[in-house]
Amino acid sequence: MMRVRALAGAVPALLLATATVAEAPQEAPNTCIGCHVEEEDEELSAPVAEWRRSVHARAEVTCDACHGGDPLEEDEELSMSEDDAGYVGAPSWSEVPAFCGACHEEILEGYSESVMAEHLEEGERVAVCTTCHMSEGHAIVSQTPREILTEERCGECHDADRAIALRDVLEKTSARIATVDQQVERVRGRIDTGRLDRELREIRKRHLVIAHTYDLDRISEVAQVCDERLQAVTSQADELIQEVRFRRNLGGGVVAFFIIASFGALRLERDLRRRAGRLALLFALACAVAQSSRAEAPVAKPAAHPGEAAASEAGNQCVSCHRRKETLRVLPGWQRDHFVLWSRGEHGLADVTCDACHGGQSDAPEKAASHAGIRPASDPESPVYFKNLPRTCGSCHEDVQKAFVHSRHYKELVKDRLAPSCNTCHGFLMEIARPSHLLVDSCELCHNREPDGVKPEIVDEARRALDHVARARRSIEDARHTVEIARDLGLETGRAAKRLRKAEQLLDETGARWHSFHLGAFESDLAEIQAMAEQSKNAAMDAILTR
Fold it and tell me: Considering 166, 302, 358, 540, which has the largest number of Cβ atoms within 10 A of its Cβ?
């Protein structure tokens, strides 16, 4: 049976609170929009005005994303060519779920298990995505279950009482999710909420998927499970709120006491001033430590990349050709996306160009010569075939490869089994360095409690190990603050600074050592780093107190 992939365009709308439709971002040049908006025939121009009010416009999802065609081509026939531009137009009624499901795959899983999908497969005209989410044409906006599951709409085919019962269950859970999310929002940015955010995403995802089965019994069961999980998130959020308040009050008290102590020191004799100065120094140190501990686990964030990549086009025909407008027009959509992601990612900014990974002759002016030897990623002989990635990536990242070849993952990979490779965690384009919580999410692809899952406890072990990295970083930060204060006072910091440098060096090396995935040994190394940082801080503190 065809798996119907759909109902997502406005699915978040189905379950989340009504959102005010913000104005769409400034539109990039698009011949589909530019042509249709000038049409005198309202049937052709109205969809543009409707689209501009929609969630698709806010997300910069334009006509070609759904209907195909070339949005850069000014010639109407070429722009809407089925062969050259991939134009597909409007789908038939039975094709709508798969049409929307091309992007909204997870929602499709729920809809494909519904009785509607079964009847649709048999050729009956039943409710599809457009039934609920396109009542106002292309103006797809966020709506609540109460706005979507109406007696008028559902009552045409079903018992209205059942529709109301379904709506009430969904609306209750939606409101609960929104309430808990607002509670977590109170501390976002002040403390690490990554774990709670991931849990909320999982709850929302499960809620959205099961909603589109339209099975009241199953939806009620999942609603109960979601409610229990939301109660746990609420309790954890309350703890974080209390911790933020404690830190804020402690920081204010320390600063106030420091000011009072400093003011009193001005009125004491020399000996007392000296003692007060030491006390004030300790309070200053406490402030610095409190400041450094405000963030939980540091999260790696991609740097803001203004414009496109800094990759030089000089002498590299791959980059210069793929950037040309005439090339972009004929490339499939996924290839255009790949080029943009590369150009704004870590490899593009570091001038690591296409040929470094894919091969080919980057200095050849002709396409045939430039592409000589390049194989698709699905070819086992390709350097970017997933089993070959460790060797390809390792040509630059040697330390990482040396660690990875000693891992169980690599041993499974070379046995011609489906096992994690570089792209599992870092993505096919390695466009950014992923934050730690996303890396742990990758572990759950295999280490889960599904029938074919293995060692689900690995996920928690990996999370603890990465949390330990964050603690080690905080210890190094504390030590660095203490050493800097001692150095500013003109004190001897040789022993403390030496231990600090060693701890920093070892911490820098953990990135490579992580790829052996020997989590026990990895945590032992981190414990040593943390102890070394503590020794550095204590040595600097002793120098301060005995001066």
Answer: 540
Q: What does pLDDT average to over the chain?
A: 77
Q: How far apart are CA 69 and CA 86, in angstroms?
A: 5
Cα 127 to the center of its chain, rounded Å: 33
Measure the CA–CA gap between 464 and 80, rounded to whole angstroms: 53
Q: Among all chains, which residue has been given the structure tokens 């060519």?
A: 81
3-state secondary structure of 191: strand
Residue numbers of the chain with a pLDDT score lower than 70: 1-29, 142, 247-315, 333-334, 336, 344, 428-438, 547
Coil/strand/helix, residue 37: coil
Task: Give the model's pLDDT for residue 453.
Answer: 77
Tell me what pLDDT residue 433 has.
55
Instruction: Write down the pLDDT at residue 19.
Output: 36
Give 384-444 as a DSSP string.
TSTTTHHHHHHTT-HHHHHHHTTSHHHHHHHTT-----HHHHH-SS--SPPPHHHHHHHHT
Question: Hey, is 128 helix, strand or coil?
Answer: coil
CB 296 within 8 A of CB 190: no
Contact (Cβ atoms closer than 8 angstroms) between residue 58 and residue 146: no
Which residue in the block uniquely carries the two structure tokens 């959020």?
Answer: 237
| Cβ-based neighbours of 41, under 8 Å, separated by 6 or more | none
pTM flag (> 0.85): no
Q: Contact at 8 Å (CB) between 503 and 533?
A: yes
Q: Give the distance from CA 431 to its chain's centroid.
A: 12
Rounded Cα distance between 208 and 16, Å, is 9
229, two tokens: 């999980």
> 311: alpha, beta or left, given left = phi > 0 and alpha = psi -120 to 50?
beta
Contact, 423 vs 389, CB < 8 A? yes
Q: Between the CA of residue 403 and those of 42, 303, 433, 511, what are the distances in Å?
A: 63, 27, 18, 10
The answer to whether 33 and 27 have CB atoms below 8 angstroms apart is yes
In this structure, is the dihedral angle defined by the CA atoms of residues 46, 49, 51 and 55, taken in order, positive or negative? negative
The Cα 10–Cα 55 span in angstroms is 8
Measured CA angle at 283 (ends 279, 289), to 5 deg: 140
CA distance 89 to 67: 5
DSSP code for 304: P
> Which are the contacts of 22, defined by CB distance < 8 A and separation ≥ 6?
58
Question: Which residue shows structure tokens 């109460």?
Answer: 146
Q: Residue 38: helix, strand or coil by DSSP?
A: coil
d(CA 356, CA 396): 10
What does residue 188 show for φ and ψ, rounded to 5 degrees?
-60, 135
**Other beta carbons less than 10 A from residue 77's beta carbon:** 9
Token pair for 19:
């959102």
For residue 191, list its beta bridge partners: 188
